[in-house]
Amino acid sequence: MWIRSTMTYRASFALTVCGNLVLTGLDFVAILLMFSQVDALGGWTLPEVALLYGLSVTAFGIAHLAFGSMASLGGRVRDGSFDTLLVRPAPVLAQVAADRFALRRLGRAVQGAGVLGWALVAADVDWTVAKVLLVPLTLVCGAVIFGSLFVAGGAFQFLAQDAAEVQNAFTYGGTTLLQYPPTVFGRDLVRGVTFVLPLAFVSWVPAAHLLGRPYPLGLPDGAAFAAPLVALVCAVPAGAVWRIGLRSYRSTGS
């Protein structure tokens, strides 16, 4: 329904998508401006940083397209309109994800994929069959990891009711963090992003494998291919937290 509504005004939709492409592209413009002054950032060249950027933004763009509406859940909980979702014969999580579905979000994933395509050509990658398969595997698993953050953040809003910015700190903030090499961050932060909230498997770890660089924190060989397990470890608790949050919902009483 929301897609049909969006496509009713095709010119407006096209302009909005183009606007999203430009706005999301400004992050990469900032990286280009940095490299106009330096040859490397934390020991990583421009194509290598572009690879990090492309993996992170594309995976986040896919998750944002599917679960970006979770940010509005707090408003529904606060005004009681969430009740209408509970009486419909469809999974509540699917309804929340589809609520006011914005196809214009596709612009972020497209822009990230464009940068990723250029980086894969420009970076010095010694291609093998395993490395070719690693790219789509990483994007899918990265989208699941970010999607898990959206779902967990939505569950938190049952308690806080207006916590969209807390959720954004981990989703938008996470993808921005992953656009830069791990070598520019403190070791404790890298540990947290690897072992506590394993966003490193969205870009840092697979990019290191593709480029033949050492893994962050000396992870064992083949750690890049552990992304499906990491995605599962993120998705299962996120689903459990969602069910707990849903059971705790008590409406507004009006």
From TrEMBL:
InterPro entries: ABC-2_transporter-like. This is ABC transporter permease. The keyword Transmembrane applies. Pfam families: ABC2_membrane_6. It comes from the Bacteria. The keyword Ribonucleoprotein does not apply. The chain crosses the membrane at residues 12-38, 50-68, 109-127, 133-152, 189-211, 223-242. It comes from Streptomyces marokkonensis. Keywords: Membrane, Transmembrane, Transmembrane helix.
